[in-house]
Amino acid sequence: SAPLVEALGWLGFVGAEVLFYSPAVTTFRRILSDKSVAGFDHLPYVVSVVNCVFWVAYASLAGGRFQPLLTNAVGGVAEVAYVIIFLTYAKTWHCARDSMLAILFGAAVIAYAFLMPFPRVNGEASSASCLGMAAAAVNIAMYAAPLKIVRQVIATRSTRFMPLSLTVGGLSCSIAWTIYAVLVGDVSIFVPNFAGDVLGVAQLLVYVAYHRSSPPDKIRVSSADDADEVKADDGALKSLDEEGGSTAMVTSSSANDLARPLVS
After folding, report:
1. Is the distance from CB of 213 to CB of 191 less than 8 angstroms?
2. Which residues have a Cβ under 8 Å from the Cβ of 165 and sit 6 or more positions away?
3. Alpha-carbon span 51 to 161, nearest angstrom
4. How far is 231 from 233, CA to CA, in rounded Å?
5. Angle at CA 15, nearest 5°, toward 12 and 20?
6. Which residues 6+ apart lie within 8 Å of 80 measured at CB?
7. For 188-219, how does the pLDDT look when each residue is reduced to its tens digit (9 = 90+)?
8. For residues 28 and 158, what is the distance between their CA atoms, to the nearest angstrom?
9. pTM over the 0.90 mark
10. For residues 171, 173, 179 and 183, what is the CA-based torsion angle, rounded to 10 degrees?
11. d(Cα 102, Cα 109) in Å, to the nearest integer?
12. Closest Cα to residue 145, out of 51, 210, 8?
């Protein structure tokens, strides 16, 4: 099974890097062009930096996890670059504050994993297990982030806010890492990616159920609260569009901002 593990690891690597770097041609191309972060959210990228650091530290300690290590090291470079762009063009101090809090949180978890006298499991120090659990917890939270889009799709009965390519890409990537984790017997990698499989399938089913259920310009809503939310979203999109951008690009990029669930 070694060749299969190797193949799945590289498949997961390629899929993850595509998802890591896809915002560069959507969200950040627009930010650099406009020299403004507009309504884009920095938090998914800040959290993703912490996630990558945890996985790199875990893979380094666990040993025999070269592909997960490389995946998050290369992906982490992109995430750090995204955060720097936000820090450069953000007009508020929130990005800097959240970045500092993320750095402190990540440093505290890593220090705890290395300095605390953990019991030994099967003859090996469990510092790697501590980092693995921390990384898995952050990873699951990131996989769950697109559920906001699912709620929007159900409320509007339209998939305009859920790009199919992003949903399929994320699901394919998590499946590859799930099988990889089973073959190498790594629980820390398996748990978040299995959760990603379940959430990815749920998103795909929602997409199939609501795809083309209504024209893009005639979205139905199920309640007054949903109507207010949709109006707010449409208002933000129109506002950005009036500034010279493409509504389609903003919609896709906004979904991409939420979908930062990568990668183990």
Report:
1. no
2. none
3. 25
4. 5
5. 115
6. 49
7. 899 999 998 998 898 889 888 888 665 544 44
8. 26
9. no
10. -160
11. 11
12. 51
